[in-house]
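> Could you send the MalT-like TPR region domain-containing protein prediction when you get a chance?

Sure thing. Input:
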Amino acid sequence: IELELQYLFDQVRNLIKLGKQDDARDLLRANYQAAMDYGSKGNEVAAALDVIALGYMAIGDLRTVESILDVMRKVVDGLKDQEMYLDSVLMHMGSLYAKLGKPSLSITFYQRSLQIMEKRYG
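Output:
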């Protein structure tokens, strides 16, 4: 899934560079719907939503970023700290909340991410 998500983000970034924000938005919207339909593995859905939120941030659509973060919060709240990708997803969520001007939420996600990394790496 990591390679697929990197490919998605690269596609979105290239569309934005070409000035095709509407195409990038359509691609993100389709992938958001696919992630919501998939729904069986929370950590993979969280990782997909993470990339999608980063894509919308690159477009500058802050309202959609905030909406996706609300969905992501529900997904990550149900995940155990041992899940793959969770520390990275939480770190990105903290960064996105900081960029949205929500420092208290940002700190919450940074702290959980750091706790996971401390458990894993010491």
